[in-house]
Design goal:
The chain is of the alpha/beta class. It has three helices and eight strands. Helices cover 23% and strands 34% of the residues. Helix 1 packs across helix 2. GO terms for molecular function: guanine phosphoribosyltransferase activity; hypoxanthine phosphoribosyltransferase activity; magnesium ion binding; xanthine phosphoribosyltransferase activity.
């Protein structure tokens, strides 16, 4: 169970996505991006826009059945990316690296980039923006919604 939570707003995600694109520009030209669904879709769109990339592919790896972790299964392969040459794989987060390693095996010549990296998976990322502790749960903007919170003075004691 996570002991820390890190809330990411849409504005922060956009800034971090642009920072990721900047770091990828420094590495040289990118021909296409492969978004790992679902978390990598929005970061991939930001990177593709910033690098003026039109060739966008996706890959889907399922590692959960309901709430139980199972054997990872590739349910949609990134056919248009070939062996990955000239492509960058984009995800929102690398946690343990399980999904990233599977996708890298499919695209051995691609680079792997993510916005957030945890220590257990950091080694698989060629480029990332922010490192968070392994016990941090990142609350992405697509998983949360703003809601009204009563002022402290109006809340019941306790």
């Amino acid at each position: 169970m996570a002991t820390h939570y890190y809330t990411v707003t849409w504005d922060q995600l956009h800034r971090d996505g642009r920072a990721l694109a900047w770091r990828l520009m420094e590495r040289g030209p990118v021909r296409g991006v492969v978004a790992i669904t679902r978390g990598g879709l929005i970061p991939a769109a930001i990177v593709a826009r910033e690098l003026e990339i039109r060739l966008i592919e996706s890959v889907s790896v399922v590692t959960y059945d309901e709430e139980a972790r199972g054997e990872p299964v590739v349910v949609k392969a990134p056919a248009a990316a070939g062996d990955g040459e000239g492509f960058v794989i984009i995800d929102d987060l690398v946690d343990t690296g399980t999904t990233a390693r599977i996708v890298r095996a499919l695209l051995p010549r691609a680079a792997f980039a993510c916005i957030y990296a945890k220590p257990a998976g950091r080694d698989i990322a060629d480029v990332f923006v922010t490192e968070v502790s392994q016990d941090t749960w990142i609350l992405f903007p697509w998983d949360t919604e703003p809601q009204f919170v009563a002022p402290l003075a109006k809340r019941p004691p306790g």
